Amino acid sequence: MKNRCGWCGTDPLYIAYHDDEWGVPQHDDRRLFEKLVLEGAQAGLSWITILRKRTAYRRLFREFDPTAVATMTDAELETVLLDPGIVRNRLKVFSARKNARAFLEVQQEFGSFDAFLWAFVGGTAKVNHPRTLAEVPAVTPEAEALSKALKKRGFTFVGPTIMYAYMQSMGLVDDHLATCWRRAGADSL
Question: CA nearest 40: which of 3, 111, 79, 94?
């Protein structure tokens, strides 16, 4: 049996997310945009709730093509709000379009969202060495700086705690516990 970070529990969907996605360095702008929208949707909720709704989010938000989401009309977003497959929060749904537009501006300014994002960790994943979940911070100076930079550019639902979770999930930070099989060298402990 593989040792995992305790937060993923026993749900097979959550385990697959932990094993295959969380903490894996991501550089694809579309995936980075998808996760940015989903992390914002998760605010105040559990991640497993959003994970279970991800297929509906992908369908409704045009497979997270930021150009397509940026051009969604108010009427289209109102239709999205009717779908029970997502979290039907008006501010969160409309923020997807607002964030898509800001995302495209960042791409234009920096060449890619990836280049902008990874600069907050100097281009290399920051590897932490937590032994327990209690040692994993909820926010860091890097997450605060990212949050501030995104808000300045017009993004919403990008507070520092949300941004730290985003950085963890996109592999900018490796917070797998020391005993987790995903942690390099965990088997030697």
Answer: 94
Does the pLDDT value for residue 59 go beyond 50?
yes
Q: Is 118 a catalytic residue?
A: no
- The total domain count for the chain is 1
- Per-residue pLDDT of 92-146, as tens digits, reads 999 999 999 999 999 999 999 999 999 999 999 999 999 999 999 999 999 999 9
Instruction: Return the structure tokens found at 133.
Output: 């979940």
Query: Quick check: helix, strand or coil at residue 116?
Result: helix
Among candidate residues 14, 22, 34, 39, the one labeled active-site is 39
Digit-coded pLDDT (tens) for 157-170: 999 999 999 999 99
User: Would 30 be classed as within a structural domain?
Assistant: yes
Which of 7, 17, 76, 181 is labelled catalytic?
17
**Full domain range(s) for residue 154:** 11-181
Q: Catalytic: 39?
A: yes
Q: Can you tell me whether residue 126 is helix, strand or coil?
A: strand
Q: Could you confirm whether 105 is annotated as catalytic?
A: no
CATH number of domain containing 104: 1.10.340.30
Q: What is the pLDDT of residue 188?
A: 39
Catalytic residue, from 7, 47, 76, 144: name it.
Answer: 47
Of 140, 139, 149, 64, residue with least CA distance to 110: 149
- Cα–Cα separations (whole angstroms), residue 13 to 10, 16, 40, 61, 100: 9, 5, 20, 21, 27
